[in-house]
Design goal:
The chain has helices at about 10-20, 35-40, 45-55, 75-105, 150-155, 160-170, 185-195, 240-255; strands at about 60, 70, 105-115, 115-125, 140-145, 200, 210-215, 225-230. By secondary structure, the protein is α+β, with helices and mostly antiparallel strands.
């Protein structure tokens, strides 16, 4: 591997792990430790350490007979998720821009990854309407699903058994002044989201930040993403904000859904 000085914050271990995955190709789908070591310019012991880690995480799998490795199912999952996210982002972009133009607020598109949501597109609102948290968020940012509007829009439509298992792995810590730290109260709110098709975050993620979200469904009816607008705190009640902004958010979610396969 060619050594490049990338500066502070660069992870050589991550670079080497990704280099191992990138070494596999359609022409060379299976590689042994010695082949990988030569290709990457690493020692056998170092290569084996990275390969063993990736295999334990199911990014690589080993053939029992040849002892060679090939890409595992988690790499395929990553690839399909990325392709789906890129297509969804391309579809959603114009509609998010229209939503921000209509409301003046920052709009986001998010998908769920286990107990978190990931922002995959983001259109900032008018200057002066930002909450300070918004300056730290970007495409790729993660937020806890249980205390974000997009997260609740995605959690609410999970099968109950899947939802229970996910919440059992979620630490319901206090993030803002109104965070649900009790599973029963959170489940009650998720039931309301299922009934209304609207999810809210009323200072649950952080103080003085509110958000309203709606689910985006595929043609099969599965909820695959959520659209939201982020609203810096104001004296207006969250119920009034839902009345004002909810229809535009739901309309945006339906417009995106109409173009999703």
């Amino acid at each position: 591997m060619k050594q490049v000085n990338h500066g502070l914050g660069f992870s050589q271990s991550l670079e080497r792990g990704l280099a191992v995955l990138s070494a596999f190709s359609p022409d060379r789908p299976a590689l042994g430790i010695s082949e990988l070591a030569r290709k990457l310019g690493l020692t056998r012991s170092t290569t084996h350490r990275y390969v063993a880690t990736l295999a334990s995480l199911r990014y690589l799998e080993q053939d029992g007979e040849t002892r060679k490795y090939r890409l595992g199912p988690r790499v395929l999952d990553l690839g399909f998720s990325m392709l789906g996210s890129l297509e969804l982002r391309e579809i959603a972009g114009p509609h998010l821009r229209q939503l921000t133009e209509t409301t003046g607020q920052t709009s986001n598109l998010a998908i769920r990854d286990d107990t978190d949501v990931i922002l995959i597109d983001r259109v900032r609102g008018r200057p002066g309407r930002y909450h300070h948290l918004e300056f730290t968020l970007h495409v790729g940012s993660r937020l806890p699903a249980y205390c974000s509007a997009t997260g609740k829009a995605l959690l609410a439509f999970l099968p109950r058994q899947d939802l229970d298992r996910l919440l059992d792995r979620t630490d319901l810590v206090q993030r803002g002044p109104r965070t649900h730290t009790d599973k029963r109260s959170l489940l009650a709110e998720l039931e309301q989201v299922r009934r209304t098709g609207i999810a809210t975050n009323d200072e649950e993620l952080e103080s003085a930040l509110r958000s309203i979200a709606a689910p985006v469904r595929s043609r099969s009816g599965e909820v695959i993403a959520a659209v939201n607008v982020a609203i810096p705190w104001s004296p207006v009640a969250i119920s009034d904000l839902v009345t004002q902004l909810g229809p535009a958010i739901q309309a945006t979610a339906k417009q995106i859904a109409a173009k999703v396969i």
